[in-house]
Amino acid sequence: MKTIKYTYSLLISLVFLLFFASCKDDLSSLDTNKLSDIKVDTVGQSTLSVFQFDELVLDPKILGIGPNDQLTYEWTINLEPWSTEYITIGTEKKLTYEVGFVPTNLDRLHQIVLKIKDEKSGVTYIQDWPLMIRNGIGEGLVIVETYDNQNTDLSQIMSPLVTPDFNQEKIRTKIYSAANGTSIPGLVNSMIFTKLGSSNVLLGGTSNSLFAIKTLDYSLGDQNEKLFYAPQDSYGPEKLVNFVQNEIMIHKGKLYANWLQISKFGLPFPNNYNIPTILGINNRYDYPNISLNFYSEEKGHFAYQYSFATYGDRGMRPVPAATVPFNPNDLPNKQNIAAGISNQGEFIHILKDKSTQKYGLYILSAGGYDSENWVPTPSVPKKFMDLSNAPEIDQAIKFLILDNQQVILYATKTKIYAIMYSALNPAYSLRYTVSSGEEITALSVYLQADYPMVNRENFSRNGKQLILGTYNGTEGKVHVLPLINEGVANIDQANIKTYNGFGKILFTITQL
Prior knowledge:
By secondary structure, this protein is mostly beta strands. 6% of the residues lie in helices and 43% in strands. It has a five-stranded mixed β-sheet, with no helix packed on it. Strands 10, 11, 12, 13 and 40 form a five-stranded antiparallel β-sheet that branches. Strands 35, 36, 37, 38 and 39 form a five-stranded antiparallel β-sheet that branches. β22 and β23 form a beta hairpin. It starts with a helix and ends with a strand.
């Protein structure tokens, strides 16, 4: 038995010797045409990682380059994890590439491939790296913008001014089109940050579509009929508003309210009103006495609704008549200009008389509660002011009703004015003028997406700064304007921060 094993081992050894001898003979024929042994030093770069919308920078060390080598470079990436379809992203030795693909899972990574070709010999050397794309979009400011006045894109700013506990600045432009390969068809007219099922989303609308964008990677989620229990004749809200355990939508004069985290949009509330998009919704408090207050242009009076909840009183009623300071039940021939609420729940409206063209300020209470009968009570009128002397108010394109002070800001195409209404008569003052050649396209008060915070500490900048969008015909800019001197809302001119490089800004919102 030992003799058989020894003989078998000897035969195997002989076969290997013959094989290696033949290989050496073949290789010796190349001695007269040697190629450089090109290698890429991948020490510390065996797996790549980059945040979505950040730049991936690679400048690998190339080893074994001969003095006469004529090298060319091509960097490629596959379009999806595990895909065999690649696109070229660079042709220089050093790669600088902004990664717009959606974040990857740990078991599904993209592949970066570097091809180095010696043009003299025709030999190509290939090195590849797995690439993990991480979610780099967090709490910050979302810029809703257009570059062609027909379609919409989204950009984002993260900075200490709009992102708590953050000490960097990250500006990412056109992140929606980068993640989806195309912009949003149409101009977005309204958008809110909310939750759809278990996903954080931006819920937005155009004139003919309703859609959700996942903030994890800015990919397009559910849209149109998938957001309703039943197909609709048309989609495209005129207004979207957050409310406690509800998302509010105004569409074709009807009001819808559903909690999209556990539900979808159903039927609109039955009522005899054509609901305007300029309205007061008390979304600052849990279960307010009155949830909705608006002026009906068709009926010429103020109306209200106690609750949006299925177990609450959801009927819409006219506000009861009064004699002073105005009769909310009899105000014919007015036009809605602006509406909002104070942090005390008061409903604040600016109406324009269609005959006299005069502007007026109308304030109604938050409503009360009858503890004896255990029912809420309707609003009552609290204040009226004639705003006819407000400078250039007939040229105003934006109104802001500040909830933390008795100040209303309004903007023309080039200026921002303040109306201070705490005294017996209103006072007016110019607050800001944009640079020559620019026009105001957007104006809002900075508030976090979940303001007022319930489960976390309030960010000190809430309600303390304006977000202004301007456009010069080719470039949009975002300006953060700090507010000082509460009660008069001055702007701290010395500490204005400006961000450049956007399209025409339609409006801004915040996201978590």
